């Protein structure tokens, strides 16, 4: 979209701050440097403001910001100009995603195991370790468990070599070996 010569929309990397991108379009940051909302103001012709605002909203959307309020401001402007302020806020899913990632990182750092718990009984783990020590491969152990009718941890229909390998490595790691 081009409103005038040289005015093009560029895709912003996620690390670039919304305020920096708004300044590139000629919008002045009014407030919000440390708050969850950023307010920008622009004084120009209505056509230029509309074009720049469309690009700013597109960039903000890519950065997971949403337009919350758009206001035509009063006050003195030159003939043919208007003054507009636009308030952007973090979209809920973006802030929730950040909060969830941070909470999971704290839990992992505290040593909490996340995800579904392995449900392979100790007797089966011991059998896998014993057969592995005897030199059998993971595929062979999986076939033998299947033939013996040993149920899988999650109620699956078939033992797989990757499952046997993961269970064996996890059991060794937990035992410190």
Describe the fold and architecture:
The protein has helices at 18-24, 46-62, 92-109, 122-133, 138-147, 161-175, and strands at residues 28-31, 37-44, 65-73, 82-90. It has 177 residues and is an alpha+beta fold. Helix 4 packs across helix 6 and helix 5 crosses helix 6. The termini are far apart.
Fraction of helical residues:
40-55%
Query: Could you name the CATH class of the largest domain?
Result: Alpha Beta
Overall pLDDT level: 82
The total number of structural domains is 2
Amount of beta strand: 15-25%
- CATH topology tier name of the largest domain: Alpha-Beta Plaits
N to C succession of SSEs: HEEHEEHHHH
The SS-based structural class is alpha+beta
Biggest sheet, spatial arrangement of strands? 1-2-4-3
Q: What is the strand tally?
A: 4
User: How many whole angstroms does the radius of gyration measure?
Assistant: 29 Å
CATH architecture of the largest domain: 2-Layer Sandwich
Task: Please give the largest β-sheet.
Answer: 4 strands, antiparallel
- Low-pLDDT runs: 1-16
At a glance:
This protein is α+β, with helices and mostly antiparallel strands. It has helices at 18-24, 46-62, 92-109, 122-133, 138-147, 161-175; strands at 28-31, 37-44, 65-73, 82-90. It has a four-stranded antiparallel sheet with strand order 1-2-4-3.
């Amino acid at each position: 979209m081009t409103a005038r010569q040289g005015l093009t929309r560029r895709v912003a990397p996620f690390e670039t701050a919304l305020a920096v991108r708004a300044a590139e379009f000629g919008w002045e940051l009014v407030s919000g440097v440390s708050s969850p909302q950023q307010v920008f103001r622009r004084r120009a012709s209505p056509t230029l403001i509309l074009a720049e605002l469309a690009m700013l909203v597109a960039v903000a959307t890519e950065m997971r910001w949403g337009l919350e309020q758009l206001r035509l401001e009063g006050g003195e402007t030159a003939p043919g100009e208007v003054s507009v302020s636009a308030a952007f806020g973090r979209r809920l899913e973006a802030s929730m995603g950040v909060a969830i990632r941070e909470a999971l990182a704290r839990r992992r750092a505290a040593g909490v195991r996340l995800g579904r718990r392995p449900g392979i009984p100790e007797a089966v783990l011991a059998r896998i370790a014993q057969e592995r020590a005897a030199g059998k491969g993971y595929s062979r152990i999986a076939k033998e468990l299947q033939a013996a009718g040993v149920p899988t941890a999650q109620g699956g229909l078939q033992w797989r070599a990757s499952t046997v390998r993961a269970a064996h490595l996890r059991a060794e790691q937990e035992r410190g070996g």
